Amino acid sequence: MPGSQFSVLQEDVCVPSRRVLVTGATGLLGRAVCREFQNSGWWVVGTGYRRARPRLLRCDLLDEDAVRTLVHDYKPDVIVHCAAERRPDVVERHTEAAVNLNVHATATLAKEAAGSGVFFLYISTDYVFDGRNPPYGEDDSPNPLNLYGRSKLEGERETLRHCPGAAVLRVPVLYGEVEFVAESAVTALWPRVQEGAAESCTLDHCLQRFPTDARDVAAVCRKLSERGIQDRSIRGIFHFSAKERMSKYEMAVAMAQAFNLPSSHLIPLTEQPAGSAVRPVNSELNCSRLELLGLSVEPRPFRAAITDCLWPFLPDKRWRQTVFH
Ligand SMILES: NC(=O)c1ccc[n+]([C@@H]2O[C@H](COP(=O)([O-])OP(=O)(O)OC[C@H]3O[C@@H](n4cnc5c(N)ncnc54)[C@H](OP(=O)(O)O)[C@@H]3O)[C@@H](O)[C@H]2O)c1
């Protein structure tokens, strides 16, 4: 029985006919993708690596034989490939390991998907663009500024080379239901917001970002997959992004306002910090292809969605009780 050598995330008594394999299921986006497909009646198998827990498969995607066995045994209709090294500064420091995961493991999965007739969905990033001429359409020329963006672009190319029927979904910076606040570059701002008036804190006000809730991306992944397994013209590159443009400084101020906290200690910084990987100034994505196909979702407003994601990290339980219960 497919998947029998592994524990599965969900196996209904009446096994649904559609199966999805989600890589990176222990990560921010992968968790949301698993939940979204489960809630829509798919049979879901999620893989993780260091954080794989009893209900997820542990599979090192750098192990080609393990990847082949996984796809062969499980026989999914769809693979949503979320696993990646997505921290630009880590990619600069550990480039070989990151390229192995972001490029070579992607190529292995894409080959297996093509060989098995699986709809392959590769998650990519707005960092494939240099940010000098936004907004970017799917056909605009990428020109990544850092090694992370380059590795993800290579991952896209390997995907489409080995699996021409695949889809690539580019998304901007993500936040969502995090296990710890540092898990997303957006929720990572929360401790600095909470510092309050005690200490002033400089935050980037130079790079324009479009913080997007992972739950919205997950819904787009499901819609793309459901259409993709029926309609083989659903292939190539797609963009999805929330519409609110914000610097990190503006995100932090919005968080402070949402929780009625002071924000006067937050100081906008208008130069990129030295010593970290160069990021695009504004890599806004034009998302019209998805919208025209009816495969988009209305992005959650930032203020409401970030409140949702941060409330488990509120130290003041009385506030939580007053506002949410
Ligand atoms: N987060 C963002 O702001 C953002 C923005 C744009 C695009 N993206 C893209 O969205 C996708 C998902 O990102 P994310 O934020 O969800 O990433 P994440 O939270 O950092 O999760 C990364 C996942 O990759 C898995 N992984 C790492 N090494 C592995 C290996 N050798 N074998 C198998 N799995 C391995 C991790 O498993 P363990 O933790 O269990 O080891 C984890 O599940 C990525 O493709 C990323 O490039 C993310």
From TrEMBL:
**Which Gene Ontology terms of cellular component type are present?**
methionine adenosyltransferase complex
Identify the keywords attached in UniProt to this record, alphabetized. One-carbon metabolism
Q: How does it assemble?
A: Heterotrimer; composed of a catalytic MAT2A homodimer that binds one regulatory MAT2B chain. Heterohexamer; composed of a central, catalytic MAT2A homotetramer flanked on either side by a regulatory MAT2B chain. NADP binding increases the affinity for MAT2A.
Q: Which residues cross the membrane?
A: none
GO annotation terms (biological process)? one-carbon metabolic process; S-adenosylmethionine biosynthetic process
Q: What does this protein do?
A: Regulatory subunit of S-adenosylmethionine synthetase 2, an enzyme that catalyzes the formation of S-adenosylmethionine from methionine and ATP. Regulates MAT2A catalytic activity by changing its kinetic properties, increasing its affinity for L-methionine. Can bind NADP (in vitro).
Pathway named in the protein's UniProt entry: Amino-acid biosynthesis; S-adenosyl-L-methionine biosynthesis; S-adenosyl-L-methionine from L-methionine: step 1/1
Q: Which domain of life is it from?
A: Eukaryota
Q: Where do the RmlD-like substrate binding domain residues begin and end?
A: 19-312
Q: Which family does it belong to?
A: Belongs to the dTDP-4-dehydrorhamnose reductase family. MAT2B subfamily.
A Pfam family assignment: RmlD_sub_bind
Q: What is this protein called?
A: Methionine adenosyltransferase 2 subunit beta
